[in-house]
Each structure stands twice: as C-alpha cells, then as structure tokens.
C-alpha cells in the first residue's frame, strides 16, 4: 500500500543558481500511524541526454568537460567523459536534446529515440533525466561544438564503441548516464562490442 503524503511546508534554503528546498510533510505508514518528516530536495530542473552513434563506423560521440562536484570528491582532474546532455529550460526533452547535440557536439541530427526516463538521485535531487539514442553521420556536422560559450569549454570525442565500453572497466568513464547508455546500446545490439584480441 502506498503512504498518504501531505506537504505541510516548503522552505527555500538556497536560491542561487539552482534551488534547494526543505519540505516538511506528514507520511502515513502501513499501520495508519502518522509521522512528520523533513527532507531537503535540490531542484535543478529536468534534463536530457543522448548516445550519438554511427552504425557503419561503430563509433560514438562523447563529451569531456570539467565537473566541479567530482573534483571536490576524488576525481583528480575534475574532467568527466559523458554523453551529450543538457537541462530542459522551457523545451520539451526532444527539442532540448537536438539543441544540446548541436551546441555541444556540432552535429545537427534528425531522428532521436527516447529509451527511458530516470530519477538519477531520488533521495536528494528532483531531476528526471530523459535518455535518448540517435544516429549521427559525418555530413550532419555543422560546427565544431564545444558548448554555447567559453564557460562550457567542452571537448568532443569520437570513440570506437568497444574502446568506450572498455573505458568503463578501466574507470575512465564513471558517469552514470553514460554507462547506462553504452550498456543499453550493447544489450540491444545497437552497436557491437568486439573484445580486443
Ligand atoms: N555560473 C554557474 N554555472 C553553473 C552552475 N551550475 C551549473 N552551471 C553551468 O550551467 C551549464 C548547464 O549546462 P547544460 O549543458 O544545460 O547542463 P549540464 O550541466 O550538461 O547537465 C546535464 O548533465 C547533468 C549531469 O549529468 C545532468 O544532471 C543534467 O540533467 C543534464 O543532463 C553548465 O555549463 C554548467 O557548468 C552554477 O552554480 N553557476
Ligand atoms: Mg551539457
């Protein structure tokens, strides 16, 4: 049985770049007992991400950028290899991911397919992330990518699929959305993993 929830209070703890709220609510458990609890929830909106793949070449496009939260928690260089991704702003997820693909990687792609939608950190972050896959071809390249301005500073990587997959095991790719999409591509035979001999 699902609990009955009643929100009593929503307090803004921080409202700088994104927003940190503290919610106080009652939750009614299985035995009918009512508890009052408080939890913080970080609201940075929703996002979308995409695995760009080329079936003929068996390659994928990934991005590499500095991520401060990882730098302060054990990632020595702070650099993260990730699938292209961005926040929705006012877009729907499909329009968002087409726009982000062009801004970050320089490819103007046509078809994108949604594969799943995921709460990436359900105990603390409100965000739903919409996951896509989409094929890219060389003739769809319209600019160098890299992000909207010097603040994003994104490197674009084109990698052999098997090499990208091996980078997970070597700890060189350690971003959840990226691992999920590479595994999705392998499980569903979108691309083929070939172990090095
Ligand atoms: N000035 C400033 N800039 C910020 C701050 N926090 C983030 N930014 C910048 O805001 C930009 C947001 O870029 P997007 O491409 O729209 O988002 P993203 O950070 O790539 O987010 C994607 O990846 C996240 C991590 O996996 C996902 O959580 C998110 O849903 C999305 O897919 C980035 O350049 C980021 O550095 C901040 O506190 N201050
Ligand atoms: Mg981004």
UniProtKB/TrEMBL annotation:
Keywords (A to Z) from UniProt: Hydrolase, Magnesium, Metal-binding
Name of the featured protein: GDP-mannose pyrophosphatase
Top-level taxonomic group: Bacteria
Pfam families, per the entry: NUDIX (PF00293)
Needed co-factor(s): Mg(2+)
Amino-acid positions noted as binding Mg(2+) 1 in the UniProt annotation, renumbered to this chain: 85, 152
Gene3D superfamilies from the UniProt entry: Nucleoside Triphosphate Pyrophosphohydrolase (3.90.79.10)
Any GO molecular function: hydrolase activity, acting on acid anhydrides, in phosphorus-containing anhydrides
GO biological process, one term: ribose phosphate metabolic process
Family per record: Belongs to the Nudix hydrolase family. NudK subfamily.
Motif extent (Nudix box): 86-107
Record-annotated Nudix hydrolase domain positions: 43-181
Transmembrane segments: none
GO cellular component, one term: cytosol
Subunit: Homodimer.
InterPro entries, sorted: NDP_pyrophosphatase, NUDIX_hydrolase-like_dom_sf, NUDIX_hydrolase_dom
């Amino acid at each position: 049985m699902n609990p009955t929830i009643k929100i009593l209070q929503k307090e803004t703890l921080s409202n700088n770049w994104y927003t940190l709220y503290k919610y106080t609510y009652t939750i009614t458990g299985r035995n009918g007992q009512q508890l009052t609890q408080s939890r913080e929830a970080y609201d940075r909106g929703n996002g979308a991400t995409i695995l760009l793949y080329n079936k003929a070449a068996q390659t994928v496009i990934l991005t590499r950028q500095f991520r401060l939260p990882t730098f302060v928690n054990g990632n020595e260089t702070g650099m993260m290899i990730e699938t292209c991704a961005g926040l929705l702003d006012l877009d729907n997820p499909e329009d968002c991911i087409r726009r982000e693909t062009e801004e970050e990687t320089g490819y103007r792609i046509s078809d994108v397919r949604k594969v799943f939608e995921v709460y990436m950190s359900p105990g603390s972050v409100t965000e739903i992330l919409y996951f896509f896959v989409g094929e890219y071809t060389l003739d769809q390249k319209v600019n160098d990518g890299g992000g909207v301005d010097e603040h994003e500073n994104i490197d674009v990587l084109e990698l052999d699929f098997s090499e990208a997959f091996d980078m997970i095991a070597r700890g060189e790719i350690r971003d959840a959305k990226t691992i999920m999409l590479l595994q999705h591509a392998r499980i569903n035979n979108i691309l083929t993993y070939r172990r090095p001999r």
